[in-house]
């Protein structure tokens, strides 16, 4: 980190042990993203529960060259967050997941799905409420009246160009959504 870790305690007295745990967890974040510029952690105790212990709220702000990630763990109804160490663990676990996802996006390692395919209507069986599409690779793909969006099944004609989302079931390929 370019800027030293900043830790703030609100509604709770400073604790060397809690600070040490936060420093340990923050030190490991560099493994998941190598360009972290700064990290700020706020530990807050909420004193709303008189019959129970305090509830802890952990907020982590991580700044990278292109993005700021904010992780906020606040769970009023979970007993586990009466333990500040559990709250810290869960907040840093969430921070790790966000950093991993962000790093994956930056590297271009995100799966993309070309959900829509193009094709043409080759047969319509109006009386049976279905038709067939010829895909760009020459396959026949079944579709049902209920799959057609927009103007609907009745507006389709043989030869119309359409876009569709293909699924495969036991009977073979079918279009789950058809866009005229």
UniProtKB/TrEMBL annotation:
Classification via Gene3D superfamilies: Nucleic acid-binding proteins, Ribosome hibernation promotion factor-like
GO MF: nucleic acid binding
Matches recorded under CDD domains: RaiA
InterPro entries documented for this protein: CSP_DNA-bd, NA-bd_OB-fold, RHF-like, RHF/RaiA
UniProt domain CSD: residue ranges: 116-180
Pfam families the record matches: CSD, Ribosomal_S30AE
Protein name: Ribosomal subunit interface protein
Organism: Methylobacter tundripaludum
